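Incident review: delayed structure delivery

Summary: a single-chain prediction request sat in the queue longer than the usual turnaround. Root cause was a stuck worker, restarted by the on-call engineer. No data loss occurred. The affected request and its eventual output are reproduced below so the record is complete for anyone auditing the incident later.

Affected input:
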Amino acid sequence: MMFKRFLLHVGVGLTPALFAAQITANVETRLAPARFPTRFIAFFHVIWVILRKDLRVLLRQPANIAATLLPPIGFLLVNALGAAAVGRNPVALVTLDQGARGRQMAQIIHNADVFRITDATPARARILLNDVDVAAIITIPADFTQRVNDHLNAPITVIVNNLNLDFTNDIRRSVPDAITQFYQAQGQSSPIKVTLQETDLRHRDVELFQYNVLPTILLLLMISGLINGGLSTAREWESRTVKELLLSPVSHGAIITGKVLAGFVITFLLGTLVLLLGYALGWTQPEGIYWLSALLTIALVSLFSAGLGVAIGAALRRVQVVIAVSINISIYLFFLAGGIGVLAFEPTWLQNIAAFVPLTYGRHALEQAIFYSASDQFALDMAVLALSALLAIGLGVFSMRRGITS
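Output delivered after worker restart:
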């Protein structure tokens, strides 16, 4: 009994013989007499032993943790830099007119929320443009107020550095929009009658960086499930502990279930932690019951990736190979599901491919739950994710059984 209790509390560092002895000792004790409830309890006890052992091993492998976290963090940093670069264009504003209309026009440009404004003199603005510190110079002329009051043309000069078509087009669209707002603010005294009315399809505006956080979370879930599920399986062959597992009087189903659950638990907890961190930072803010929708989506994607990871680990049986293949598969699925873009605006061929990628439905479900508090196509998303998870687990079972029998 003392030897049995010692084995029950052994963690990482089990030799192959001791780990097999742990399972054997516990299972043999619980299989006598061989009744259905006893076998049922023993089955889940074996799952728990394998799950606990794999979790401890995985959590004490810094290289594996780095392989899981670094790619999503890299994508997140790229998204942050890209959003900062294209979200608001840097421009120099030269206000030569200090009259009422000139100041009003300058204030409208400041409030347009599409520019990063640097107020400057003409000479300073030219230096900023030449040094590529700004993408354009917007100049309000000295006689702007007088010309507006006299109902004359009141041109605003825009000098654009067209080094990048994205910057150039944004400025070309934004300046006329600011001028339109200026005339609309004049009301009945405006020589140009302008009425602006906006009807939003969504009740919430989502920043570009926020919009790209959710695909990055899905990438994290895929890498975590594939690497952790794959490594917990491949390590058994690489360290030859699979032989001891086969010699122990436990069902193959319990072994496989324990492997899948180990990858699932780590991935789900990691996804939930990132979701909570995003909530604290204001990036992801589901409300009410949509917390459950978001967590269910994370759970199904985690189960899908863990099952697929077990299949890859049983097929490849080498830790380093599993890491490389898992990262590559995750990134390919990430981009085939639309990546950091808006899938509806992507080329038709990519949309057709994305329809067969489970991450597409996980992304849609997360967007609806976290950004828009909606359940649009929720049943379809959950059905596809659940079916994909079952197929991935089935593939993992097949690959594991094939590896065990061979």
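Verification: Confidence is low (pLDDT under 50) at residues 1-19, 23-34.
Action items: add queue-age alerting; document worker restart procedure.
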